[in-house]
Design a protein that fits this description.
Structural class: alpha/beta
Order of helices and strands: HEEHHHEHEHEEEHHHEHEEHHEHEHHEHH
Shape: globular
Number of helices: 17
Largest sheet: 5 strands, parallel
Number of strands: 13
Distance between the termini: 14 Å
Strand content: 5-15%
Strand order of the largest sheet: 3-4-5-8-9
Length: 418
Amino acid sequence: MKLPSYRDRRSTTAPPRLPDRARNARRLGATAVAATLVTGWGVGTLTASPSIDGTGVPSSERSGSPTSLVPDRATAACTNSTKLAGWSNRRLAMLTIAVPVPETSVSDATAEVSAGAGGVILFGSKAPSDLGSRLTTLKSHVPGHLGLLVMTDEEGGGIQRMANLAGSLPWPAYMGAHWTPAQIQQNVTKVAAKMAAAQVNMDLAPVVDVDGRNVAPGRTNPDGWRSFSGSTSVVSKDGVAYMNGLRAGHVIPVVKHFPGLGGSSYNSDFGPARTLPWSTLQKVAIPPFTAAIKAGAPAIMVSNNIVPGLGSNPASLSPTDINTVLRGRLGFKGLVITDSLSAKAISAAGFSVPAASVQALRSGADMVLFDLGSNVASQTSAIATAITDAVAGGHLARSRLVDAAGHVLAVRHVNLCS
């Protein structure tokens, strides 16, 4: 939010001239205030205090009240953007990266979290019983204790990472056919509450793709039972119910896969894939996203499929898909996350993961994902370097990087000025 500018009231009577020592002291004080606003460090540096963020997610990392020596006028001008503008490009870049890590060994991401990674994404099929304490330790390494997005795929059916801790849900196709929206919300809330208790605060769900084909998801169909239904209206209602269930359980939902994978030609994880034509998606696939946005969706994942009629790049790398449609026409103001940039559809389009990360940010995405592998540390570093090099070379606007970092903090309701 842009705050009103401050204007000094000018007196018609000139103030008495101060002695030289007093004038020098006043100038030094003003210099210290200016340095604080530009750097975000030093006088008035933020300290952490436990709180509950706006989604209801417990957050011990959210910033608290500073011991401030800054006048009220400077405080009134403070925003997250002004604070982030004083961060280094490297630190801003790290905030836009979600680092993959095995849920059985979350400490593997300690170095990346210490370097300022904005999130971690958990992989596996059975979480350790002490996952919560392990994640608490990991979060203690976040610079400034400003919060960490801990995300996983807990959709239901065959795509559940921590059902042994959080409880199991059936495939969304079963929910859509047998449960009312109220029942979906109730059951999802129970699972979300246990996820939050284990310090997992973001779920890469619900899937609001309109598909309805009675098959398991696979190479030729990324949806199948992951979709609630082949009916747009059913998916719209059930998707919002699932989203609200997560929020009620204090977990941040990520609605996916924009602009809709239903009827896709292939699974983008395994190769180039196309959605149905844009003219069809507008009628069939977009309404569930519109419904979710109207219901307050905090985050949306963009797919790696090419959308015929919107360009030749995968949607996650397309400014038309993200800026023109999602941000512009649909009015989405929240966090935009890419699907995994390790997908074969991305490399087939001619992009390495670091290059794709830069292109995704240029196109309007705020956070990038990639797959778990043996080179996570080097891949994370390569992505951050590619982003900082792009800014230095004029290929990525620094204002866009600051904006992306701001969205990462905003989804956790972190206020750098309070």
